[in-house]
Design brief:
Elements: E1 7-11, H1 17-30, E2 42-47, H2 63-75, E3 79-83, H3 92-101, H4 104-110, E4 115-117, E5 123-127, E6 136-140, E7 148-158, E8 162-164, H5 166-169, H6 178-185, H7 189-203, E9 207-217, E10 225-235, H8 238-248, H9 257-264, E11 277-278, H10 307-319, E12 322-326, H11 336-340, E13 346-350, E14 357-361, H12 371-375, E15 381-385, H13 387-396
Parallel strand pairs: 1-11, 2-3, 2-7, 3-4, 7-9
Antiparallel strand pairs: 1-10, 5-6, 7-8, 9-10, 12-15, 13-14
Helix pairs in contact: 1-2, 7-9
The chain binds iron/sulfur cluster (2 copies).
């Protein structure tokens, strides 16, 4: 392991500015996190702004954390721009609204010009010969305006990948609705996980910070429940960092697709004890073993080959199979799921005995990407678990 892979783990109990300042400053100094800075550098902060939601819902990177990071950068002579491509359109009108709802417009205004929100909505094309999935791809042009990228993610569960954290956060470098196209093109889980790893290896952020003060459990990354964790983490590379984050929420390599493929590619660890953790907080004091998952990947695996193990694995896969399912009484008929479904598996139909429309899913077309669940603004699209899987889980407790 190189010094690039050291992970800082620091206690941080709230989003109060003084607490954030103490924790973030400590976290970055432990790994010499700002050593990349040179005079007049332009730094792009790739935040998690997946949807326009209030900071206290634990969906997006908290503005107080972004404020402190920007202060540290500006004090050292850098200029800063914060950006992301949320779910939906990558257009000025759509993204300004997301900035506003995430509390960033106010942050920009209060900074007196030292913090800027990205206003470049161009789309660029890239070739990446070392990629596994993304040999050629589209990306958000603002990333070319900056000298270096800092990835500032949020620790959450994710229905398709198991966990959304540092590695997954780079998917927001893909513009707007092209994301749904890539879900379709790389619908197999490993291929999709390789998209995330490719993006990290192509853009190579110089620093990764994870907001794990309040995380999200259950139906993540947007419709789960906020859960207090109380930590801030940082590293110069994402894979050991994500392994530590996975361990905090009771997961391992086999539960997180991006960790699995990173390990296969020789980029990431197999287990958390391979990570060098520095900081005032010990992993054993922050672990939350009952953190609720959204994952379809469970840690039951059967080593070795043979027909019996194949049958057991197939049975486990079936037991743990999941699908999106609308909760009709919570649906507001906004059509967001219909618009974002990459497989065109959703049609809007009249609700039984009511004069409103709700989504209907064609199971033969559904690729189980869970975009519909991710982008439903009211959490009405749920992850439906096979009852047998639920039963097996309860027996394991
Ligand atoms: S219905 Fe939902 S999970 Fe299925 S393909 Fe469409 S967006 Fe993905
Ligand atoms: S996105 Fe959610 S609220 Fe909107 S139509 Fe789909 S299920 Fe209903």
């Amino acid at each position: 392991m190189s010094s690039m892979d050291i992970v800082s783990l620091v206690r941080c109990e709230s989003y109060e500015y003084d607490e954030i300042r103490r924790a973030l400053d400590e976290s970055l100094s432990l790994i010499d996190g700002l050593s990349f800075l040179k005079p007049d550098m332009k730094v792009g902060i790739k935040a998690n702004l997946v949807t326009g939601s209030a900071a206290d819902r634990a969906i997006t990177t908290h503005p107080v954390l972004l404020k402190r990071l920007c202060e540290l950068l500006v004090q050292r002579g850098a200029s800063v721009v914060i950006g992301d491509s949320p779910g939906g359109l990558f257009t000025p009108g759509f993204v300004q609204n997301v900035y506003k709802n995430c509390g960033l417009t106010e942050l920009e205004k209060a900074s007196g010009g030292s913090i800027l929100l990205n206003q470049n909505f161009s789309v660029k094309e890239a070739e990446f010969k070392d990629a596994v999935s993304l040999k050629s791809f589209s990306y958000t042009g603002w990333l070319d305006d900056v000298d270096v990228i800092i990835n500032f993610s949020k620790l959450k569960t994710h229905a398709m990948m198991g966990m959304s954290c540092a590695v997954k956060n780079m998917f927001g470098c893909v513009p707007g609705t092209t994301k749904t196209e890539y879900h379709m093109r790389f619908s197999e889980e490993r291929a999709f996980a390789n998209v995330m790893v490719d993006l990290n290896e192509y853009f190579k952020p110089v620093l990764y910070v994870v907001d794990a003060i309040d995380g999200m459990e259950g139906n993540g990354p947007t419709a789960g429940k906020k859960r207090h964790i109380g930590a801030l983490l940082a590293s110069k590379r994402p894979y050991y960092l994500d392994m530590v984050c996975a361990d905090i929420i009771g997961m391992g390599m086999s539960d997180v697709q991006t960790l699995l493929v990173a390990n296969e590619r020789g980029l990431g660890p197999k287990a958390v004890d391979e990570a060098e953790i520095v900081g005032s907080l010990e992993l054993k004091d922050i672990r939350i073993p009952d953190f609720k998952r959204a994952t379809i990947h469970q840690s039951i695996t059967f080593e070795g080959g043979g027909l019996f193990n194949s049958i057991k694995s197939a049975a486990v896969k079936l037991a743990y199979s999941t699908k999106p399912q609308v909760k009709e009484d919570e649906c507001i008929g906004c059509k967001k799921c219909f618009e974002t479904c990459p497989a065109k598996a959703i049609t809007m139909v009249g609700a039984k005995g009511a004069s409103r429309i709700i989504p209907s899913i064609d199971r033969s077309k559904c690729i189980k990407c869970f975009c519909c669940q991710e982008f439903c603004p009211v959490g009405a699209m749920k992850v439906h678990y096979n009852p047998l899987g639920k039963l097996l889980n309860s027996l394991q407790k």
